């Protein structure tokens, strides 16, 4: 996301969308909003939600939604468990960890069908295997998620791993260095500065996680299941509109929350999300999840992260709500 130091539309099929959005009545004036907590400052990676709110998709679906930004000093899980949010943007790994600890949290859907995380590398590097022995800067979360998998699969060692502080200056200064980045962000900064690079996306390397997974409290799932369904359906339409139609409404909302976000960055990020097929393959259902993908990641976590295999892992997610989604890419 927008965390570095030296900077970071087919037409809407309105008829079908309006049909499902009209299926639920307008919310009562006193109905509390579903409170969405993002995982960073407002940016294109949250654009579908901002688009859905700005374009009135949530309102027409009968579910008011508020959006609160996360950030480097925000503990999203703590806020979710403390009742300060109803839904948060997190990860599959975080959901599995919550299930292992019997926390009352469950993944209800996702934003992207693949992770937007990868490695920015110098132009002489064209394959992940070539990074063996090279210094690689990764963040704290990465150390406990994909890094053990990379070590197990590609023979990397912990001695290679340094701390990434969201500043690409070390990359510029060290021709052997690789950094963990988001395909939507740090590459934009490098492009703006005419810094040559290649990019290796984790999902292309075989790490098949969903990106920006939506985690909800089990209380919200139990009490407001219809609202959760309406939220996910409207969000799917928001994402399709934001990436493949007119994103102006969503962009305005993003900039209101995060004035530092530039139009050039937003355009670059949307193009990157389209290029990698973040919403899925043509004809695929936006926001969906399946059992096979969750089982695959669980196996990674147990085998490569040496986590204990517990029967509670299946409580990490539910497909109850995504089974009702039908908006396609």
From TrEMBL:
InterPro entries: NMT1/THI5, SsuA/THI5. SUPFAM superfamilies: Periplasmic binding protein-like II. One of its GO terms (biological process) is thiamine biosynthetic process. This is ABC transporter substrate-binding protein.
């Amino acid at each position: 996301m927008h965390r570095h130091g030296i900077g970071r539309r087919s037409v809407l099929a309105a008829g079908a969308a309006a049909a499902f959005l009209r299926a639920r009545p307008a919310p009562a004036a006193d109905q509390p909003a579903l409170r969405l907590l993002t995982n960073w400052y407002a940016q294109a990676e949250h654009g579908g939600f901002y688009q859905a709110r700005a374009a009135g998709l949530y309102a027409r679906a009968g579910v008011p939604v508020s959006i609160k930004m996360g950030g480097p000093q925000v503990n999203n899980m703590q806020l979710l468990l403390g009742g300060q949010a109803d839904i948060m943007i997190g990860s599959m790994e975080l959901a599995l960890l919550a299930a292992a600890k019997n926390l009352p949290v469950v993944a209800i859907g996702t934003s992207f069908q693949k992770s937007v995380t990868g490695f920015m590398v110098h132009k002489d590097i064209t394959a992940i295997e070539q990074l063996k022995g090279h210094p690689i800067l990764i963040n704290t979360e990465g150390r406990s998620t994909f890094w053990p998998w990379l070590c197990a699969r590609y023979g990397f060692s912990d001695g290679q791993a340094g701390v990434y502080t969201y500043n690409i200056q070390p990359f510029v200064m060290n021709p052997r260095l690789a950094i963990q980045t988001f395909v939507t962000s740090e590459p934009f900064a490098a492009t703006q500065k005419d810094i040559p690079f290649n990019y290796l996306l984790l999902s292309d390397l075989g790490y098949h996680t969903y990106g920006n997974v939506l985690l909800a409290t089990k209380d919200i799932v139990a009490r407001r299941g219809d609202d959760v369904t309406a939220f996910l359906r409207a969000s799917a339409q928001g994402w399709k509109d934001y990436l493949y139609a007119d994103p102006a409404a969503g962009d305005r909302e993003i900039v209101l929350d995060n004035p530092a976000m530039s139009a050039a960055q937003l355009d670059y990020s949307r193009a990157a999300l389209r290029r990698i097929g973040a919403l899925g393959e043509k004809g695929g259902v936006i926001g969906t999840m399946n059992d096979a993908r969750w089982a695959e990641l669980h196996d990674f976590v147990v085998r490569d992260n040496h986590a204990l295999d517990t029967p509670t892992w299946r409580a990490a997610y539910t497909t109850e709500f995504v089974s009702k989604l039908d908006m396609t890419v």
